[in-house]
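Contributing new records

If you add data, match the layout below exactly. Sequence lines come first and carry their own label; structure lines follow with theirs. Keep one chain per record. Anything else will be rejected by the validation script.
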Amino acid sequence: MASSSTSRRILYWGGGLLALLLVAGGGAWSMGWVGGGPSGVSVEVESAERRSLTQMVTAFGRAQAETEVIISPDVSGEVVALPVQEGDVVQPGDLLARLKPDDYRALVERNEAQVLQAKANLSQRRADSVQARRVYDRQQKLYEKGVVPESDFQDAESSYKQAVAQLQSARYQVRSARADLQDAQEQLQKTRIFAPMAGTITRLEVEKGERVVGTQQRAGTEMMRVSRLDRMELEVDVNEGDVINVANGDTARVEFDAYPDRRFRGTVTEIANSARIQNEGSQNEVTNFPVTIRILDDPNTSPSLSQSAGGVSRPEVPAGPTSGPVLRPGMSGTVDIYTETVEETVAVPIQAVTVRDFADLGADSSQTAGPAEEDLREVVFVAEADSARMVQVTTGIADNTHMQIRSGLDGGERVITGPYSAVSRTLEPGSRIALDTADASGGGVVAATQ
């Protein structure tokens, strides 16, 4: 009986000691005293390097002629002649269209007759004025001698003044008739529409036989458009967050969907002062500013168009038809506007820069904000031996992949770039890291532990 009790006591003590050893071993493993410790998060490391950065703003738009004139008639009528077609090249003064002139020619003849009638009336009034003047002078002399009563003299004076007024009115009628005639002649001339400048017919909206409407107060029927296709531009919408970086004269690179293998040089010529707001008042509200990009290269000269080889003409080969323009109004394109360039500056991958709240970290803050307020600052994490050091940085411009570091890094440091969850949330100052063997050359993957 005593032997059984002793065995049971030894078994209890042995089990308790084993459990204690297991707990101690687990704690030592978790603290990293024994074994390899937890694997932690695998993070990527790249070196901060000095390089040139160019900040870009990307926008989308459509090509349009820098100079485009809408041709509308000033008078109404039927189109009786249309000697041009869409795509034709015209010079200043070339006839574009002619409207039926019959009504306007009749109006000119009617006003010519009115001018002649007004001149005849003027001659009659001039003769009446001369006659009234003679009567007035004679009655004045007789009245001064006391031969005629005062009433006869006053009647002659009144008749003379009335004749003078009628003569002046006749002169005004002649002027008015001449003005009406000149207006009718101008309307007759406006039935012939000429090209105001050299360019290409990029849009033709009417056909021969159609009737168009023209008024003096507002634009009439749009008949066609004349554009200068040798000077093209794009109007793009730039977001309000990016437009502050764009300035007149900034260079740009333009790519069109129709010509994916060709690049065009451009420059910013105009930035709108008023915004275009889409979906105003809704959650999808977008505020953009129109920006005009002029294409510096001749957009309608293709370097591959050549009919000769080595400068030797080949008359036995018939010339092909004249090629059309390379760029046409309405073609969609992408614009990369180069807003700023910095040479030989310290730069790190964009994903290496994150934000930490220094108030939560308990770090010394140069701001006077209370402990309950956020103190957000930009930082990067630098891999040093077996730990991650947090460095506060001041950033500058950025391109598609890298960001400028104005202060905080000197270049050559190995900054942690990923994964995103580790850089943005997990890593803290002094987090333990274990360099992978692939990291010996200065980049690669490390394992981080808290």
